[in-house]
Amino acid sequence: NNKEWQAAYSVIEQLEQAGFEAVIVGGAVRDALLDRPAHDVDVATNALPEEVKTVFQKTVDIGIQHGTVLVIVPAGPVEVTTYRTDGEYTDHRRPQNVHFVRSLKEDLQRRDFTMNAIAMRRDGSFVDYYGGQQDIEKRIIRAVGEAEKRFAEDALRMLRAIRFSAQLDFTIEANTFAAIQQRVADLGFIAKERIKAELDKLWVGQTVFGGIQKLEDSGLTAYLTGDFQTAQWHNFQTKDALLGWAYFALLQGAAWREVVRDYRLSNKEMAFINSVLTAYDALKDGWTNRHYFYYTEQELEAAQYFAQLRQLDALIPQQSIRELQAKLPIQHKQELAVNGADLLKWSGKKGGPWVKASLEDLLTAILHHELQNDRQQIKSWLEQQDLT
Ligand code: ATP
Ligand code: MG
Question: What's the confidence (pLDDT) of residue 388?
């Protein structure tokens, strides 16, 4: 129906016409069975990467060593991966090598969970050797094969299990969960960036609280940086992963910078979090027009949401932030009727830090309706200030 599926179907059709077998696999099939919109519709095929490249005019090598070729068709780009099995895992992260195979069954066997190991043919029929459809029906996350072995191979799968359980509001099958409890220490082998990517998805999940509870119950929190404070996540829900990081930061107290930085957040993300936390702190004494001026609507809304989660509703202003911001006497510093040069001219004093401080003072006075944004009025106000 949607564009991504159309593109995938057209790729499969062309591979079949060239005599190969191709199917849709992974998250797209799972999400279709759950009636959730898919983001990436991935194709798997028995054609070797070189063979895939001969079938299509436009391709990009994006991971040829893992057998993945990006195929560009009119409906869009599609990732096409050759059926493969994984070689030996020696570092709890990734296989030493991969082997291309011609059997779909073997390809599905290397996948992490039964719900992710279902393939769909172009005619809409499913290839499901591991009971994935039934598990989806029962909303269960179950490892393909021997759970403990699968987590020992690739420790990230433990975090994926829990992230999926939060994302989809699924339970983790008992044996699979017990296997995570056995292997938690292996998380130390996983790069921070990959852990961050999983937490990004957990924060926007259907039940973040459920996810954090499982992180704690499994013992994984002991191998993750920061204090998760499970009880504090009750009812937390967002569409913006950065809000999850900001709330996580709030729970770290003074150590938030080091903790959040450890997950490799960018300077821009850190700056947003810093603003939200400062605005949140300022809520205790109530926000004034200065706060509505200096913080963005998004930052104030985040701080307000956190106050609500922590039952500090009493502090939350009654009016909408947007309305309060729209009513400010000025919206931007550029709208000030005077500038630093005016101050120097009027005072006859030498430049210095006082100029900036003085501009700040008069801005505050204007924001608080103690002074009008008018050159003459500001001039006399400044003279008045100098006298006192
Ligand atoms: P999402 O909705 O988060 O994208 P997804 O299932 O598509 O979920 P991806 O990370 O995009 O997850 O991976 C695509 C597929 O590749 C998975 O559905 C699964 O079959 C397989 N896969 C991904 N990561 C692993 C892993 N670490 N171990 C085994 N199989 C994996
Ligand atoms: Mg995906």
Answer: 64
List residues forming the annotated binding site for Mg(2+). 40, 42
CA distance 12 to 132: 22
Return the pLDDT at 272.
Answer: 98
Question: What is the Cα–Cα distance from 117 to 183, expressed in whole angstroms?
Answer: 22
Tell me the pLDDT tens digit for each residue of 105-162. Answer: 999 999 999 999 999 999 999 999 999 999 999 999 999 999 999 999 999 999 999 9
What is the Å distance from ligand 1's center to 157 Cα?
Answer: 9
Domain count, the chain: 4
- Domain match, 185 and 277 both: no
Beta strand residue intervals within 7-90, DSSP E = 22-25, 42-45, 59-63, 68-73, 76-82, 84-86
State whether the Cα torsion 247-252-256-260 is positive or negative.
negative
Distance, in Å, from the CA atom of 349 to the CA atom of 302, rounded to the nearest integer, reads 43
d(CA 78, CA 86): 22
Residue 77 has pLDDT above 90, yes or no: yes
Residue 246 lies in a domain: no
What is the domain range of residue 129?
A: 1-133
Query: What SS3 state is found at 119?
Result: strand
113 CA to middle of ligand 1, Å? 9
Provide the ipTM: 0.99
Q: Is residue 76 part of a domain?
A: yes
Distance set, CA 142 to CA 303, 307, 383 (Å): 38, 37, 75
Q: How far is CA 267 from the centre of its chain?
A: 16
Rounded CA separation 322/316 (Å): 14
Residues contacting ligand 1 via CB (< 6 Å): 26-27, 40, 111-112, 116-117, 154, 156-157, 201
